């Protein structure tokens, strides 16, 4: 196995000068940062697609305001037998 340690030693002597060329004060996210960012982007896309699908199912109709429709007040009075309290 002396050949293996010699090749590792040779590889290290070639890689160390390459590492010294990199600015030590510069921080980069690297591949891990890209993977995390891509995973978050896919998750947000999936959530937006799901939200869009669920919002499409919502059928919201606001009930009519009884104070603005006088017909609703008279219909209520005749159904209950009591006079309406509208002015």
Explain the overall architecture.
The protein is mainly alpha-helical and 87 residues long. It contains three helices and no strands. It is rod-shaped, with a radius of gyration of 36 Å.
Summed up:
With 87 residues, this protein is mainly α.
Q: How does the SSE layout of this entry go?
A:
Layout: H1 2-21, H2 30-57, H3 70-80
Mean pLDDT comes to 75
Structural class: mainly alpha
H-E string:
HHH
Based on CA atoms alone, the radius of gyration comes out at 36 Å
Number of helices: 3
Sheet with the most strands? none
Q: Residue share in helices?
A: 55-70%
Unreliable segments of 5+ consecutive residues: none
DSSP strand (E) fraction? under 5%
End-to-end gap: 103 Å
The coarse silhouette is rod-shaped
Number of strands: 0
Output the keywords.
3 helices; 0% strand; 68% helix; 87 residues; mainly alpha
């Amino acid at each position: 196995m002396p050949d293996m340690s010699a090749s590792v030693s040779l590889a290290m002597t070639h890689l160390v000068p390459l590492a010294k060329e990199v600015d030590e004060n510069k921080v980069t996210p690297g591949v891990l940062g890209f993977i995390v960012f891509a995973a978050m982007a896919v998750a947000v896309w999936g959530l937006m697609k799901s939200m869009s699908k669920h919002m499409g199912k919502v059928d919201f109709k606001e009930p009519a305001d009884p104070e603005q429709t006088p017909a609703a007040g008279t219909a209520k009075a005749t159904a209950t037998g009591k006079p309406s309290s509208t002015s």
